[in-house]
């Protein structure tokens, strides 16, 4: 969020970045009622005295003690309000409706969606730069930039589209399954049908989220750069399953973290392992485009922190029509690519075009950074409130290169924001980004500080910064407070 950090898998040794938001299923199982105190005996209640019952066992008689029953106890089980009415017929129990069966869930139903943001549409300046690698548009209509957030698939994948609609977004990211497990149950046909129906244009009864507006995020467990063959095979099967689910749903863009050498091989060997997986999955699953994400922690075992490393992987891919890159702004900044001013932003994007090529740009993750430039720390911050600042994100929103590709927020939000349907932080950030997109250069010079101050107050009212000394989101809980298996099963994405 994009969202608690999954536990590191020993099977993959995969690098896991810190995520700042959390979510779990909207459809938690109904809570069991708390056990009530034992009722006081009623002197009027009839008590059935103990009477030994005789049974025969091996030809001998054996006495069996039978516990006494009271009318009060029986009535309590039957749900009778009057313990003295022992002869009355117990009322029939009301049928319970299981949670999560109503579709669409009332709290995220289309009638509760606000108007989409980004109107009136910003007129991008003309450019001589090479175009991006966005998918062909599904419509000839001019649209705002495809700005959105990472949304939860709790209750089924179609829920992610409904949540994006509730946030007023024009694009989104999502998982296709739990990112905490290697394997998940296959989709029910009904779940696939619901998703495909909601992707349709509004005039056809859908929400209007076509394939080019959706960027799936892969499992954090995957590490295709690990030279251990057994672990590589496990990662590949998870990778392939993610991509097959995209194909089932009609999604075309699948983004994932390339992996790590885990200190067991060279970077060049990891490039080859990653490209091997891409080439293999392209042959086994049709259509879906594999989108490699740039990473933070430059100089470590993690692969993809520099543009040159992304280019090295792409060079080994056979079908280059089905490979793209997703640039994460926090990861860029952490790795030493400056975005803070118009000049530094232009220089960074020029380097990308020279080393990788604009034609391979397939999406962006929009996150400010709590860490300094080249700090090698993946610490997400809300837009404009970190070390990158609002000007860097205004440059992105006004860059014609960013039109037609998913621009996804993965910024911090309150605990369980997605579970409770609290989209306030992302709704505000989406509006903010479209707002600063439309401000001209002269006005920006005078209004920048005022807008940043206003936004910081809004953010602090929604999600106050945590006090020092408290565990940060995604960090381990204090000793003695273990997470239950139920928590794991419910928190299907972050």
Q: What can you tell me about this protein's structure?
A:
InterPro entries: AP_endonuc_2 (IPR001719), AP_endonuc_F2_Zn_BS (IPR018246), Xyl_isomerase-like_sf (IPR036237), Xyl_isomerase-like_TIM-brl (IPR013022). Residues 1-142, 453-494 are annotated as: Disordered. Belongs to the AP endonuclease 2 family. The protein has helices spanning 71-78, 158-166, 189-199, 229-249, 267-284, 307-315, 329-334, 342-355, 390-397, 417-420, 424-437, 441-462, 485-490; strands at 53-57, 60-64, 147-150, 171-174, 214-217, 253-256, 289-293, 323-328, 361-366, 368-369, 380-381, 407-409. It is 30% helix and 10% strand. The chain has one domain (130-490): Alpha-Beta Barrel (TIM Barrel), CATH 3.20.20. The chain contains 13 helices and 12 strands. The termini are close together. The strands form 3 sheets. It has an 8-stranded parallel β-barrel. The protein has a two-stranded antiparallel sheet with strand order 1-2. With 494 residues, it is α/β, with parallel strands linked by helices.
Q: Please write the string of helix (H) and strand (E) elements.
A: EEHEHEHEHEHEHEHHEEEHEHHHH
Q: Please write the CATH class name.
A: Alpha Beta
User: Tally the helices: what do you get?
Assistant: 13
- Give me the Rg, rounded: 28 Å
What strand order characterises the main sheet? 3-4-5-6-7-8-9-12
Shape: globular
Can you tell me the CATH topology? TIM Barrel
**Number of structurally distinct domains:** 1
Q: Could you say which structural class the secondary elements and strand pairing correspond to?
A: alpha/beta
Q: Please name the fourth-level CATH homologous superfamily.
A: Divalent-metal-dependent TIM barrel enzymes
Largest sheet: 8 strands, parallel, barrel
Overall pLDDT confidence: 82
Strand content: 5-15%
The poorly predicted ranges are: 4-41, 43-90, 472-494
Give the CATH architecture: Alpha-Beta Barrel
* Distance between the ends: 7 Å
Q: How many DSSP E strands?
A: 12
Can you give the helix content as a percent range? 25-40%
């Amino acid at each position: 969020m994009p969202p608690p950090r999954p536990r590191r898998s020993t099977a993959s040794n995969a690098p896991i970045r810190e995520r700042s938001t959390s979510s779990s299923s909207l459809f938690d199982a109904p809570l069991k009622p708390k056990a009530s105190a034992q009722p006081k005996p009623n002197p009027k209640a009839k008590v059935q005295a103990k009477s030994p019952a005789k049974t025969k066992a091996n030809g001998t008689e054996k006495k069996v003690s039978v516990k006494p029953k009271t009318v009060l106890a029986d009535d309590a089980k039957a749900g009778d309000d009057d313990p003295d009415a022992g002869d009355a017929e117990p009322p029939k129990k009301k049928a319970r409706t299981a949670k999560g069966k109503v579709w669409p869930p009332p709290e995220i139903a289309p009638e509760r969606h606000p108007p989409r943001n980004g109107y009136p549409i910003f007129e991008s300046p003309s450019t001589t730069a090479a175009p991006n690698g966005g998918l062909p548009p599904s419509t000839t209509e001019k649209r705002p930039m495809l700005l959105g957030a990472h949304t939860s698939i709790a209750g089924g994948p179609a829920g992610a589209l409904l949540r994006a609609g509730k946030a007023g977004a024009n694009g989104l990211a999502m998982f296709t399954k739990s990112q905490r497990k290697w394997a998940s149950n296959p989709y029910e046909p009904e779940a696939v049908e619901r998703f495909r129906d909601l992707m349709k244009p509004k005039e056809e009864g859908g929400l209007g989220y076509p394939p080019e507006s959706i960027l799936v995020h892969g499992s954090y467990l995957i590490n295709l750069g690990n030279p251990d063959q057994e672990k590589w095979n496990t990662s590949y099967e998870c990778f392939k399953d993610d991509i097959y689910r995209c194909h089932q749903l009609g999604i075309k863009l699948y983004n994932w973290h390339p992996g790590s050498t885990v200190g067991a091989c060279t970077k060049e060997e990891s490039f080859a392992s990653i490209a091997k997986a891409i080439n293999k999955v392209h042959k086994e699953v049709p259509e879906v485009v594999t989108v490699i994400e740039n990473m933070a922690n430059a100089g470590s075992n993690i692969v993809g922190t520099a543009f040159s490393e992304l280019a090295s992987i792409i060079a080994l891919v056979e079908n280059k029509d089905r490979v793209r890159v997703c640039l994460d702004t926090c990861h860029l900044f952490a790795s030493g690519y400056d975005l803070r001013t118009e000049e530094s932003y232009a220089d960074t994007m020029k380097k990308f075009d020279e080393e990788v090529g604009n034609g391979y740009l397939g999406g962006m993750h929009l996150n400010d950074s709590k860490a300094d430039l080249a700090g090698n720390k993946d610490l997400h911050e809300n837009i404009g409130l970190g070390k990158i600042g609002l000007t860097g994100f205004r440059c992105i929103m006004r860059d014609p290169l960013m039109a037609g590709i998913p621009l996804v927020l993965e910024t911090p939000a309150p605990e369980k924001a997605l579970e409770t349907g609290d989209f306030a932080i992302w709704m505000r950030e989406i509006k903010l980004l479209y707002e600063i997109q439309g401000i001209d250069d002269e006005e920006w010079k005078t209004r920048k500080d005022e807008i940043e101050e206003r936004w910081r107050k809004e953010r602090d009212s929604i999600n106050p910064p945590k006090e020092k000394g408290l565990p940060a989101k995604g960090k381990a809980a204090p000793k003695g407070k273990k997470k239950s298996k139920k928590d794991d099963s419910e928190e299907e994405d972050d």
